[in-house]
From TrEMBL:
Requisite cofactors: FAD
Pfam families: GMC_oxred_C (PF05199), GMC_oxred_N (PF00732)
UniProt key word Flavoprotein: yes
Domain (Glucose-methanol-choline oxidoreductase C-terminal) ranges: 414-540
Gene Ontology molecular functions: flavin adenine dinucleotide binding; oxidoreductase activity, acting on CH-OH group of donors
InterPro entries noted in UniProt: FAD/NAD-bd_sf (IPR036188), GMC_OxRdtase_N (IPR000172), GMC_OxRtase_C (IPR007867), P2Ox-like (IPR051473)
This protein's UniProt keywords: FAD, Flavoprotein, Oxidoreductase
Gene3D superfamilies: FAD/NAD(P)-binding domain
Protein name, UniProt field: GMC family oxidoreductase
Domain Glucose-methanol-choline oxidoreductase N-terminal: 206-289
Family designation: Belongs to the GMC oxidoreductase family.
Lineage of the organism: Bacteria, Pseudomonadati, Pseudomonadota, Alphaproteobacteria, Hyphomicrobiales
Length: 553
């Protein structure tokens, strides 16, 4: 792939290409990868550069009029990042996006899981649920996506146990209430400790037919007079450089906020924007509301860490680790009208945790080498047990912790009043900012509370330490529920068969607009509870196959 900077191009440059991709994150880079070495000319337009530029990041600013706001008597919302990612907690809601080569993969931690079969289904207790494509149809694309993401087998339920080197003990939870759920992590092929960064992994493929244009922020998409066909797009940089691109086909791969924003802002032919004849663009905004369900004051003999830690896969050429958690059973969701949600154990490591100290020294990031050496020297037993756990049992190590908590991420019900629209404020390129009104319904709150109480009662029944439930759950005060966004915006250009309730069809083409497609989580009709990247990449692979047929490949 050839990388060029828009600021080096001659004034008035016009580029003709077969396929233009707006955004170089997992969606854009995956589609480009699928075309690598073909006869199709591909152009990726990336708003940022090779390094993160704070001035470019300011283009992410939104006018936030919705959640997450402070609720009465509740603490400030918090995304739960710790360690080297802790700074991500401080970024404003819906502004945690990366304008850089590789997009959102620049700061993600690699957490992946596939959707459950029920996520695709039309569920009577969730209005506007149901995908126009099935999980069975998507399964081969999920497997192809797993290969791209360097993952192990795409198995995330009880069936995974037989593949794990030393699986967690079967805790005998009531299957009518709870079910095991696992996540795995996408790591670079070059480093088993570095989450996959798409720029490093795929940005340098031998693909002379693919060009990447950096510092090229797309400010407008232009259609013909009837707004039924894509004609061109304009990309600009902060220094005034400008290029016009004329693609045969165009795919928006800019994320759940920017995809909708760009359609709405491209209002030259239609004041409602492109593809918005039924006022659906930007609606149905969802994320993964995150909250803390409870805290463990102690962990006798590592009982919680042992059962809800990391577990290595057996018989694989590469070592893949899976994180064990719990989710509400499908039966309970249906009986009580609940949303799909899952919980996992998270820890804040103590300053004198020997494994954290060892990592800091190894990475030369220690603030006090003497203190870290003392932490290591004072805990030889913990290091020995940890080494045995990692090397022999293929499990995660036990850590000293200041806080151990149960965290939850929930699906959201589709809500047309939860939305992205345009603000009167403009960014420095003159484009109206996104106005975000994210709404969390009583159904999300009730689902998280039910999961917490179910975990607590089941832990007590089988003899595990019970967590101290979060104050709002213990007091049955849903009005004090505290949620944060997880920078997983979805649904704003949702997929469906009817243009009255969706923006793109089952092939991700914008209804009524020839040549315009959308990739990424913005097309999810419902977002599930799982981190979105695996499904984003799977849909991108599927879309690439469709585009190949359109372009005669």
């Amino acid at each position: 792939m050839k990388i060029r900077d828009i600021r080096t191009l001659p004034a008035g440059t016009v580029v003709d290409t077969d396929l233009a991709l707006i955004g170089s994150g997992p969606s854009g880079m995956t589609i480009a990868r699928e075309f690598a070495g073909s006869h199709t000319d591909v152009l990726i337009l990336e708003s940022g550069g090779i390094e993160l530029d704070p001035a470019i990041q300011k283009l992410n600013a939104v006018e936030n009029i919705g959640e997450p706001g402070l609720r009465k008597n509740s603490p400030p919302p918090h995304r739960g990042y710790t360690g080297e990612y802790e700074w991500l907690n401080d970024i404003q809601a819906f502004e945690l996006r990366n304008r850089i080569l590789g997009g959102s993969s620049h700061t993600w931690v690699g957490k992946c899981a596939a959707f459950d079969e029920m996520d695709y289904a039309c569920r009577p207790w969730i209005p506007q649920s149901g995908w126009p494509i099935s999980g069975k149809e998507l399964a081969p694309y999920v497997d192809r996506a797993g290969n791209i993401l360097n993952l192990g087998p795409n198995i995330y339920d009880e069936r995974l146990r037989k593949f794990l080197h030393s699986p967690p003990e079967d805790s005998k939870f009531d299957p009518a209430l709870l079910r095991p759920f696992f996540w795995q992590f996408s790591y670079s092929r070059g480093s088993a400790k570095q989450p996959m960064r798409f720029a490093a992994e795929y940005g340098h493929l031998d693909a002379p037919n693919v060009q990447i244009l950096t510092y090229a922020t797309v400010t407008e998409i232009r259609t013909d007079d009837m707004a039924g066909h894509i004609i061109s797009l304009e990309a600009r940089s902060a220094d005034g450089s400008r290029v016009i691109v004329r693609p045969r086909l165009l795919v928006l791969c800019a994320g759940g906020i920017e995809n909708a924003r760009l359609l709405l802002a491209s209002d030259r032919q239609n004041p409602q924007g492109i593809g918005n004849g039924h006022d659906v663009v930007g609606r149905y905004l969802a994320d993964h509301p995150r909250t803390v369900l409870g805290y463990f004051p102690e962990d006798p003999a590592g009982m919680i860490q042992e059962r809800f830690g990391f577990y290595g896969l057996v018989g694989s050429e590469k070592l893949h680790y899976y994180l064990h958690g719990l989710a509400l059973s499908p039966r309970l969701q249906e009986e009580e009208g609940l949303l799909n949600c899952a919980a996992f154990v998270a820890k804040t490591h103590a300053q004198d945790d020997p494994w954290s100290a060892l990592r800091r020294l190894a990475h030369r990031s220690s603030k006090s080498a003497l203190n870290d050496i003392m932490a290591i020297a004072s805990s030889p037993g913990m290091l020995t047990r940890g080494a045995y756990s990692r090397l022999v049992k293929k499990r995660g190590v036990l850590h000293k912790f200041d806080q151990m908590r149960i965290e939850c991420m929930s699906e959201q019900r589709p809500d047309p009043d939860s939305r992205v629209s345009l603000s009167a404020k403009r960014d420095k390129l003159g484009v109206r900012q996104a106005r975000v009104d994210w709404r969390i319904s009583a159904q999300e709150i009730a689902s998280a509370a039910r999961l917490a109480r179910t975990i607590s009662s089941e832990f007590a029944r089988i003899g595990l330490p019970r967590p101290n439930l979060a104050d709002w759950i213990a007091a049955d005060a849903p009005e004090n529920a505290n949620f944060s966004d997880m920078a997983h915006p979805a649904g704003t250009t949702r997929m469906g068969r009817s243009p009255e309730t969706s923006v793109v069809d089952e092939n991700a083409k914008v209804h009524g607009v020839e040549g315009l497609y959308i990739a990424g989580s913005s097309v999810f009709p419902t977002p599930g509870h799982a981190n979105p990247t695996l499904m984003v990449v799977a849909l991108a692979v599927r879309l690439a196959d469709h585009l190949k047929s359109r372009l005669g490949q």
